[in-house]
Write a structure and sequence with these properties.
homotetramer; 208 residues; mainly alpha; Arc Repressor Mutant, subunit A; Tetracycline Repressor, domain 2; 2 domains; 9 helices; DNA-binding
Chain lengths: 208, 208, 208, 208
DNA sequence: AATGAATGAGCTTTCATTCAT
DNA sequence: TATGAATGAAAGCTCATTCAT
């Protein structure tokens, strides 16, 4: 992947090296969760990981790359959830598929809510490289789904915009829910409500 | 409460001091806009403002307070917009009032879109003090409006929650629009679409 | 007094000015007591005194001079106590006079124990100008007294050395007492014990 | 207690690190001697030591800890002198043992007189942590000795108090001697005089 | 005389990064 | 390869002092 902005310094070909890379990422995740991005220092990460600072720099050429890798991994998991939701509901109607997506979003937030929120709100902008932003690939699946149902969506809005807005919408609601009423994520009626809202946006009926 | 941790160190008494405070805030805003919160350093702000670092600390006991003051000022302007929207539409129907609010939000984003987004997404949490968080007073006016129309809103959701979500929702959409399609803010149909969405949330009609 | 290292910038001839000088000194003393020498800053002193920082510098050309003035005043009071003890016991025997001096020392410590200890132990050396060191004039009176009784003191020790050692001795004991058993200052038998000790030094009897 | 506030940040593992720690302490001692505690700044110490400021903070988490370490080292040497004096005179009479202690004190002052006096008089109180204050362990040996001879000491004074006062006494005298007549430390009769004084305190004979 | 706004050298401390071993 | 000692730019902040008003 030559067009990635930051490459890993060295592909960990050996078992030992792969393990080290993993241990370092786990330590980074731990500190991100506990202390946010501002709390991450390479020295702390190396210590927590039980490796020398030199080793960390063997595999991650900078702090930014380390965090970017962690973010990429996380969004890769998210993408899989959405991909799964897409595949699992192939052929079904829009409401069912929308529900599957909302539930995938909720699962995503359950994976590691604190990390998710740190990665989404606590990272300086320069952390996000356009083609690195895995949110993109998450949205790809939403676009695919909306495109499958493009005739059920109201006119005058592009699929790309609708996908982006749908994602923002659900993220905003879930972010809010996680912060202020985390138990609602487990509440079945909450899911239905969000789905309703999403559908209302995608194909609003007259409100009168 | 003159000893609040997040108060100014010293009230500017003379004209010259008021000017200095202002110049410092403007410099802070400038750097926030250009380089985000992480880019703000007291030395850079002082230099940009053309005052000594000592003068900065004469009025702002810490970097955090400076940013908090800037945030307070900004949200104070927002609150006025929302208050105006509330007052101007007193007695009208929910759709009209919702539209007034959405337009107020858009105006808010036009005030200083980049600053707005930095203040909303780039600030560490500790920046937000409970009674200092001016987003609260913005929400107060949304709550007031929703409360006026509480019978037109679907059951099972508290006014407070609905207000928070409405705000998050509109913010998320506008944030997205500002980043990816800033011209849409000027598009009349965009406003209508957002209003539709908001109403769909507040009182969804059967989508069947 | 042209040979004083630091002169007051200006003799306070007017009533108002004298009052200001006093208020500043009192504020300085207060802060010395509460926060030690390290806690003294000219700005804090001026604020505590209720005068502007500019006024402080009108009367005290530097922080060092301010503290030196406070120290001089304090040791001036001490000197008066010792002078009084000398005068009051003129013509009496050594033990009585020694007791008078020890009691004067105790009174000195009672004047302002904390300030005394701060002035004696917490001040950087450069604070002490040879001819400014009012401890000198305190010792002068001890020397005078010992000289009156030079025949009752053992041979082989100069009056100057004996005076200095006597003072160090009593100071060391009292300093220790103030820190670790302040109530002993009020105990009559404590006084007698210190006197005993002092006499034992000045004219030791065979201990066999 | 590996997490004590006043511990070193990191134990030096390699030879090079041990050397660095030492060089830093030596530089700190040098500056303490020349400019007193107020003259100590971490930058000056690092520069004098010829290491980077970062290296200093690698081993000493704060300026305070650095000075505390220097003090600990110094008093450790003192303790050894007193311990030696105690052991060397086991079984002898009080006057001999007292003399041994006074001579140990004199040796202590000869080790590094200026540093000794700076560490004893120029340090802010917060520098002294209860169990860190090595003066305590010096006093322990005096207490041990006095306890061996408790029947030869006058009644009505606890061993602990007597030990503290004896130490203060000898310190005060020597401090004075060092400042005003350093050659007296080499004078045999001076030693005898101090011993006499100490014994006079511990068991005063009637002066009548 | 008095005020207080302004100054800036200098302090303590952090942390991403390098490099000799 | 792995280690960890060393680096030093740069950050936040203090405070004695000056000077325009």
């Amino acid at each position: 992947m030559p067009n990635r902005k930051f490459d890993l310094k060295k592909q960990p070909l050996q078992e030992r090296a792969k393990f080290t890379v993993d241990v370092i990422k786990q330590a980074g995740i731990h500190i991100l969760r506990e202390q946010g991005y501002a709390g991450v220092t390479t020295n702390k990460v190396a210590e927590k990981a039980g490796v020398s600072i030199g080793s960390l720099y063997q595999y991650f050429p900078s702090k930014e790359v380390l965090v970017a890798e962690i973010k990429r991994d996380h969004f890769c998991q998210l993408r899989q959830l959405f991909q799964q939701a897409y595949d699992d509901t192939a052929g079904q109607a829009l409401p069912e598929r929308a529900k599957a997506f909302v539930m995938a979003s909720i699962d995503a937030h359950r994976l590691d809510p604190v990390l998710h929120s740190v990665l989404n709100t606590d990272l300086p902008d320069f952390e996000v490289k356009e083609d690195d932003d895995s949110a993109v690939s998450v949205r790809k699946w939403i676009e695919k789904l909306l495109d499958d149902h493009r005739h059920e969506i109201r006119d005058g809005v592009s699929i790309a915009v609708a996908a982006r807005l749908s994602y923002s919408l659900v993220e905003a609601i879930l972010h809010d829910a996680v912060s202020h009423a985390p138990e609602s994520l487990e509440d079945a009626s909450f899911v239905d409500e969000v789905v309703l809202m999403l559908l209302a946006y995608l194909k609003p009926a007259p409100t009168g």
